[in-house]
Design goal:
Blueprint lengths: L4 H7 L3 H12 L3 E6 L5 E6 L7 E6 L7 E4 L9 H11 L5 E2 L4 H27 L8 H28 L6 H13 L6 H15 L7 H26 L11 H5 L5 H4 L5 E17 L4 E10 L5 E9 L15 E9 L8 E2 L5 E4 L3 H9 L5 H12 L9 E5 L2 E5 L2 E5 L5 E4 L9 H8 L8 E8 L6 E9 L4 E3 L3
Parallel strand pairs: 1-5, 15-17
Antiparallel strand pairs: 1-2, 2-3, 3-4, 6-7, 6-9, 7-8, 9-10, 9-11, 12-16, 13-14, 14-15, 16-17, 17-18
Length: 479
């Protein structure tokens, strides 16, 4: 059982929980600290505001998925007492060896049985994936009818916006739109509702009558409503059609995927190895939640993925915040959500083991980087011309030459094809500026993870740098 400060910070739901846990140790709030002979469980008591102390434990029988237990009333998980218990162990406070309490032993047995059942269910699902699935046609049609009704309402909202003109939307009209958009939440189309909320936010940011981003969002919503209508009508006509897996249309409409939904669609990979190349947390006002987003490379296939951890404003205290990850994750099972260039992924904690990054891993990254910028840009243009595609896809670039053109850093491949590096907007970290200070003019043997952007106003395809990969390490410019 290895418990380090870094590990504790990863386990803490947020920075405040980590600080509060450290404070409990500093104030000597813990007593009667115990550890089992196998060093898989620690437990003890922590003084609180009441008469009786809280009983808290941290169970590491599964190292990658520790279980915290505490009888305090906190809804935060793990609570500050659980985090504090880890800090007490990390700071080498005395823990007496003792027999595992019976209540925890009983709970371990229940967890083991649940896990065995879960494994059996997964195997059964994989077997069923090879055979036709029984479809509840009536339930599917009923939901689709509700979604199509919601889309009709959304079309009316969009028509009113375009007919009245964007410049005519004053504060009174915005409130009216907010009320109408809120009603879309009744039709199982949360993705479409979010798209409209994004439109209102773009309207709030309009300066000097510059409506380019607003018009882009209007076009996106228009394309989404058309695609969603066609797609849902096809599924209504034939409810036995499987969901579309080569695009993100289901998620753009608002489908919330369960792992048990992905297995029959064969959207999983066994024995995967992932390396996080970049990490960022940002505030999504349209969704009313914080988003922790990771960029990952599949070391076996070279595929670039994203992870997204959503933390709604109302529940932010109770949902664990994701962190930047430095190790390679070895996963028994990796689940891939429907999508195209950078699909979203997920895994279960108990299937994960970590190992340190090696020079061989770094070498593998370079083999998956694109060396011909012209071919890469052509591929990206073909993908993002679809109005529903992510306009800022992740790509890996091999580096050959770097130079300044004015104030911008320009990359050049061996065939003299060029890509300009820029910072997309004022809200994004100035990673291009940072890179100018550290990237040599001859960066041969290095690679760069970037977000591609097609500037509609200038027609220039640019890139926003995220991570520089040298011969032996990753330099995360954004994390």
């Amino acid at each position: 059982m290895e418990i380090t400060s870094r590990k504790i910070e990863e386990l803490a739901p947020n920075a405040d929980a980590a600080k509060n846990g450290r404070d409990l140790v500093a104030k000597n709030k813990f007593s009667n600290l115990k550890i089992d002979a196998d060093k898989t469980l620690i437990w003890g008591e922590c003084a609180g505001s009441g008469k009786n102390p809280y009983y808290v434990s941290a169970d590491f029988i599964e190292v990658s998925n520790p279980v915290f237990r505490c009888n305090c009333p906190s809804r935060q998980f793990p609570c500050k007492h659980g985090i504090g218990l880890l800090y007490a162990y990390e700071k080498s406070l005395p823990f007496a060896v003792d027999v595992i309490p019976q209540d925890i032993s009983d709970k371990r047995n229940k967890i083991e049985k649940k896990q065995e059942k879960k494994v059996q269910e997964k195997e059964t699902l994989k077997e069923k994936a090879e055979t036709p699935k029984k479809i509840n046609k009536a339930a599917i049609v009923k939901k689709i009818d509700a979604q199509l009704s919601g889309i009709d309402t959304a079309k009316k909202i969009l028509t009113n916006i375009t007919q009245n003109g964007l410049s005519a939307i004053d504060s009174k009209e915005k409130k009216n739109l907010q009320t109408q958009i809120k009603e879309l939440g009744n039709y199982y189309i949360p993705g479409i509702q979010t798209a409209f909320n994004d439109l209102l936010l773009e309207l709030d940011d309009v300066k000097k009558e510059e409506y380019t981003l607003v018009i882009n969002q209007v076009n996106f919503i228009s394309a989404l409503l058309k695609k969603a209508t066609d797609y849902l009508n096809q599924r209504k006509e034939n409810p036995e059609l499987p969901p579309e897996v080569n695009s993100a249309i289901e998620e753009q409409i608002g489908t919330i995927w369960k792992l048990t939904d992905l297995i029959p669609l064969k959207l999983y990979e066994e024995n995967a190895a992932l390396l996080q190349l970049s990490f960022n947390s940002y505030n999504s006002e349209a969704r009313k939640e914080f988003v922790d987003e990771g960029a990952w490379l599949n070391l076996k296939t070279g595929k670039l993925y994203k992870t997204k951890n959503y933390r709604p404003y109302k529940a932010v205290k109770y949902i664990k915040e994701d962190n930047s990850v430095a190790d390679v994750l070895q996963l028994k099972e990796l689940y891939v959500y429907p999508g195209e260039l950078n699909p979203r992924i997920r895994w279960e904690a108990e299937t994960r083991t970590d190992r340190a990054v090696t020079t061989e891993d770094i070498a593998i990254i370079h083999t998956h980087a694109a060396g011909n910028y012209a071919e890469l840009i052509k591929m990206v243009k073909n993908i993002i011309k679809n109005p529903l595609m992510d306009k800022n896809p992740l790509v890996l670039l091999q580096l050959h030459k770097a130079s300044l053109y004015g104030s911008n850093l320009v990359l050049e491949d061996a065939a003299a094809n060029k890509i300009t590096l820029v910072d997309f907007d004022n809200d994004t970290a100035s990673t291009a500026t940072i890179l100018k200070q550290i990237l040599p003019s001859n960066p041969t043997g290095m690679s760069l993870l970037v977000l591609i952007n097609n500037n509609i106003q200038t027609g220039l395809m640019t890139a926003h740098p995220l991570t520089l990969i040298t011969g032996n390490k990753l330099i995360k410019l954004l994390y």
